[in-house]
UniProtKB/TrEMBL annotation:
<comment type="similarity">
    <text>Belongs to the NADH:flavin oxidoreductase/NADH oxidase family.</text>
</comment>
<keyword id="KW-0560">Oxidoreductase</keyword>
<dbReference type="GO" id="GO:0005829">
    <property type="term" value="C:cytosol"/>
</dbReference>
<dbReference type="InterPro" id="IPR001155">
    <property type="entry name" value="OxRdtase_FMN_N"/>
</dbReference>
<dbReference type="GO" id="GO:0010181">
    <property type="term" value="F:FMN binding"/>
</dbReference>
<feature type="domain" description="NADH:flavin oxidoreductase/NADH oxidase N-terminal">
    <location>
        <begin position="5"/>
        <end position="332"/>
    </location>
</feature>
<dbReference type="Pfam" id="PF00724">
    <property type="entry name" value="Oxidored_FMN"/>
</dbReference>
<dbReference type="GO" id="GO:0016628">
    <property type="term" value="F:oxidoreductase activity, acting on the CH-CH group of donors, NAD or NADP as acceptor"/>
</dbReference>
<protein>
    <recommendedName>
        <fullName>NADH:flavin oxidoreductase/NADH oxidase N-terminal domain-containing protein</fullName>
    </recommendedName>
</protein>
<dbReference type="InterPro" id="IPR013785">
    <property type="entry name" value="Aldolase_TIM"/>
</dbReference>
<dbReference type="InterPro" id="IPR045247">
    <property type="entry name" value="Oye-like"/>
</dbReference>
Amino acid sequence: MSLRNLFAPIKLGAHALKNRIIMAPLTRCRATPDDHIPTDIMIEYYADRADAGLIITECSMITPLTSAFYSEPGVYSEEQLTEWKKVTDAVHAKGGKIFCQIWHAGRAAHPAFNNGAENVSATAIAIDGPLRGGIRKLTHVIPRELTINEIGEIVQLFAKAASNCVNVAGFDGVEIHGANGYLIDQFLKDSSNKRTDNYGGSLMNRTRFLFEVLSAVTNAIGSDRVGVRFSPISGVNSQSDSDPEALATYIATEINTFNLGYVHVIRNDSLGVLTDNYLPVYRKYYNGILIGNGKYTKEEADEAISNGNIDAVAFGTPFVANPDLVTRFEINSTLNKPDPSTFFVQGVKGYNDYPKLNFSAL
């Protein structure tokens, strides 16, 4: 029997993890609106999940006026970083590791959440349909196409955000959000990138922004403290690509030059429309630590790790309702069921009130 399973330790970049149960990034909208400062209830929420091998936080804004969820946190102001430091200290006090997922929403941002500021993207094409998560029912608007100079400025914003996270807020590293139809993914996919300059057209051009961000961030904090997340077939935010296998192959091959801590791949289409799985493409061409995500059961995750198909598994929704998920997995306990109506609202309901195991009653 293989000794590799969810509970086996693993070296991930600069860090030794106690298990391979990763907490996936989960937008929860518990920061303050407008100034996007983490709140006290977030300290308890993350600290309660410190038994995970690694916690990856919800997406956090790298610059003002780019909100897509109204009350997601940021990592660009002193006030935000001060409050995040309370979170990382609490997680570390319990022996946990925590990375911050940093992002730019691009065309998924909405002027209504950003004092009327326009949203931007690779190309001036709007997302089809309503916003995800935000408290108001709004339809997406047409973004403005970024200039070459603006792209370079955003690259540097990613680097500054990464430095803020590690050197000020005390995070163990960062995950760059390259998935689910946000700005980096908007450059990667040809449904949202119709540019005719050096950032559009060929695979080399469409991945140029991603690799420039990776270069800047790894130079800022070290490659072994950096991960990146991709969603090869996710239809979220109107995303699609004419040849997802070619795109996955190119990224998985070229990204080896960065010697990252890990690559994190969402294997499924969360909308349930597409059924292909390009996680094996990353396993074939990417030489580093590969984290899989997408509705894994504990048993399937164990098997995938044992077979070498992936190195660790990120669990999302199960961590929402089960702060003690690692313990529940260890003793094969039943899991609490999450309440989707509380995913993107303020307050402790559906956040810090899920019951933990009572061992005195077992």
